[in-house]
Amino acid sequence: MQELTRDGRISNIELAERVGLSSSACLRRVQELERSGVIRGYRAVLDRAAIGTGFTAYIAVGLSDHSKASQEAFERSISLAPEVKECHNITGTIEYLLRVEVADLPTYKVFHTEVLGTLPQVTAITSYVVMGSPKDDRA
Length: 139
Fold this sequence. Notes:
2 domains, alpha+beta
């Protein structure tokens, strides 16, 4: 799985050589990983700046109440926001951690004000702007 994680486009022959299996055995294992849902898909790693989303921020979001209805309403709203690339319900002093990608700081301000700032469930927003990513293994 490590080899596929590094390069999802690797040929079956090359993968088999790297992991020490025959091509047919390797293919069967990969197909079983796909069938069983261990491999959920393949993605391309994009240059965010090249596609106009070079500004990344992580946002800690606190909700006004901890009810299921409040969480579901927040999650529905966030699922409609294309700027939000990840939304995690977490433990601790806040309920959610978001990863947001936009073109620049003015665009982020619009998202912060017009999207997050208008959600009735939101009572706390703390932004952490990414200045660099010396390690990022996400696809």
